[in-house]
Specification:
It is a single chain. The protein is of the alpha+beta class. It has 13 helices and 19 strands. The strands form four sheets. A seven-stranded mixed sheet has the order 11-10-16-15-14-13-12. A hairpin with a 2-residue loop joins strand 13 and strand 14 (about 300). Helix 9 runs parallel beside helix 11 (about 240-245).
C-alpha cells in the first residue's frame, strides 16, 4: 500500500474517532429527528458536552430512527420533542448502555441483560433496602432469538439480518440494526422504536396479561405495598392456573393455606432475570418456601412450574409468567407436591415453610407477608443471559446466569420501598 493511502486511512480513522455522537449520527439521514431532538433541548445538551475517548467510559447508544419518532407520536398523540427536559433526559438515559458493545456481544445465543444509565427512582428501583442507599441502574434485555410474549413496538424488519430485539418496560420490544456506527465515545445502534420506561409491578403484570395475579394482590390488600417495593421479582402463574386456586380460597390472609401465602410464595427478593435460574439451584421464596431450579430440554422449571414468559422489566425488578402455581418441594427427596385444588381443600395438607428467613429491620423489596424482611446481594454490570421461552411452553434455548442469588421473606410493617435517588442525566455523550 502506498504511503499516501496509509496517511489517508489514518486520517479517516482519526476523524471517526474524533466525532461526537451528534456529528456521527448526522451522516445518517434516517437519524435526523434524533439530532433535532438534541438541538431542541440545549439544557440537556449543555450537560453532555464532550468527546469521550477513554476506554473506561465507552458507551453504547441506542439511537431511535425517524420512523421511531413517527411511531411515538402516533401512539402517544404527542411528539418526543414536546416532553419536558427531565422526561427527555430519562429517555436518553434508558437508551445509553455502558461499554462499547460489539455485534457479537448483542447476538449472544442466550441473550444479554445490560445495564443502562437510567437511575431516576420513578423507573429504576431495583436495589434492596439493605443496599445501604446505593441505587442500581435499570436494565434492558437483548436477544437475538424470537421471543414469544414480548410486544414489538413496530412489526416490520429494519434489517435483512436475523432479528435482534431489545426488551424494555411492559415487555415491549424494538428491533435493533446489527451494524454499529462509531463515535468518539463508543458505538451506536439504530433501533426502530423508543424503549418503554418501566412501570410498577402490577402495571407490568397487567401489560403481560397476568391479571389474575393482580386481582390476588388486590384481594389480599397488598397492591400498594407490592408497587412500593424495591428489588422484587414476581413469578406469576397464568390466569387460568391462578384462578383455579384463588377463586376457591376464602381464607385470604391467615396461615400457609391463605391466598396471601400463595401470592408470597411466588415472590423473590431481588431482581431475577431468566438468566439467574441455574440448573440445580435452590432458592427461597419470600415466605420461606424452597424453589428448585431445573433446566430441561431448553426450558426452565421452578419446582413443577414452567417459565413460559420472562424478563418483563418492571421499575423495581422483573416479572415472569408460569404455566401453573408452583408446587411444594420436599428438599429431602426433591419431589414436588402439586399445588392443586385437592391440597387446598384442607389447610392441614399445606406444608409449612421448612425454614424461616432471618429477620431484618429494613424496608422493601418484597410482597408483604407475616414474616420479616430479608436481603439479597445484587451484582452489577452487563451480563449474559437467556432468551424467552414460548408462551405455550415450547422449548427455547436458555442458559447462563446474571443477577440474583437467594431470596428472603418480608414484612407488611416494613413494606415501604422508598428509594432516595436523584434524577441523573447521561454525562458526556453528545457534543453539539
Amino acid at each position: 500500500m502506498k504511503l499516501s493511502s496509509l496517511v489517508q486511512l489514518f486520517l479517516t480513522a482519526t476523524t471517526v474517532q474524533a466525532q461526537s455522537l451528534r456529528d456521527a449520527t448526522a451522516q445518517y439521514p434516517q437519524l435526523s429527528d434524533f439530532n433535532e431532538l438534541l438541538s431542541t433541548f440545549p439544557d440537556i445538551a449543555a450537560g453532555l458536552l464532550t468527546n469521550i475517548s477513554t476506554s473506561s467510559s465507552q458507551q453504547t447508544i441506542l439511537v431511535p430512527s425517524n420512523d421511531a419518532f413517527d411511531d411515538y407520536q402516533r401512539q402517544n398523540g404527542a411528539s418526543v420533542g414536546s416532553l419536558s427536559s427531565p422526561d427527555v433526559g430519562n429517555i436518553l438515559n434508558y437508551h445509553t448502555l455502558p461499554g462499547a458493545l460489539s455485534s457479537s456481544d448483542i447476538q449472544q445465543p442466550n441473550g444479554l441483560v445490560a445495564e443502562t444509565a437510567l437511575r431516576d427512582p420513578t423507573y429504576a428501583r431495583r436495589e434492596n433496602a439493605t443496599d445501604a442507599g446505593d441505587s442500581l441502574p435499570q436494565v434492558v434485555y437483548i436477544s437475538s432469538t424470537e421471543t414469544a410474549l414480548g410486544r414489538k413496538i413496530k412489526a416490520r424488519q429494519i434489517s435483512a439480518l436475523s432479528s435482534v430485539d431489545v426488551r424494555s418496560g411492559e415487555g415491549n420490544e424494538v428491533e435493533l440494526e446489527q451494524t454499529p456506527g462509531n463515535w468518539s465515545g463508543g458505538v451506536f445502534y439504530v433501533v426502530n422504536g423508543f424503549l418503554t420506561l418501566p412501570l410498577n409491578q402490577t402495571d407490568t403484570m397487567t401489560s403481560a396479561n397476568l391479571t389474575s395475579f393482580v386481582r390476588g394482590l388486590v384481594r389480599t390488600n397488598v397492591t400498594e405495598g407490592t408497587n412500593a417495593a424495591r428489588g422484587l421479582t414476581c413469578l406469576c402463574p397464568n390466569n387460568q392456573a391462578f384462578e383455579a386456586i384463588s377463586n376457591s380460597q376464602g381464607n385470604l390472609t391467615d396461615g400457609p393455606g391463605s391466598l396471601l401465602a400463595t401470592v408470597s410464595r411466588h415472590g423473590l427478593t431481588g431482581s431475577y432475570y431468566s438468566t439467574n435460574f441455574t440448573d440445580g439451584d435452590l432458592i427461597q421464596s419470600q415466605n420461606g418456601y424452597p424453589i428448585l431450579v431445573t433446566r430441561r430440554n431448553g426450558s426452565i422449571f421452578l419446582n413443577d412450574a414452567q417459565l413460559v414468559g420472562s424478563n418483563y422489566i418492571a421499575n423495581s425488578g422483573s416479572v415472569h409468567a408460569l404455566d401453573r402455581i408452583m408446587g411444594f418441594l420436599n428438599t429431602t427427596t426433591n419431589e414436588t407436591t402439586p399445588a392443586n385444588a385437592s391440597i387446598y381443600s384442607d389447610t392441614a395438607n399445606i406444608p409449612t415453610p421448612p425454614s424461616t428467613p432471618s429477620e431484618e429491620t429494613s424496608s422493601g423489596g418484597v410482597i408483604p407477608t407475616s414474616n420479616a424482611t430479608g436481603n439479597q446481594v445484587m451484582p452489577s454490570a452487563t451480563e449474559t443471559g437467556a432468551s424467552d421461552p414460548a408462551a405455550s411452553g415450547s422449548e427455547a434455548a436458555e442458559t447462563g446466569s446474571t443477577e440474583g442469588t437467594s431470596a428472603a421473606c418480608s414484612s407488611r410493617d416494613f413494606f415501604t420501598g422508598v428509594a432516595v435517588v436523584g434524577t441523573a442525566f447521561v454525562v458526556g455523550l453528545f457534543a453539539l
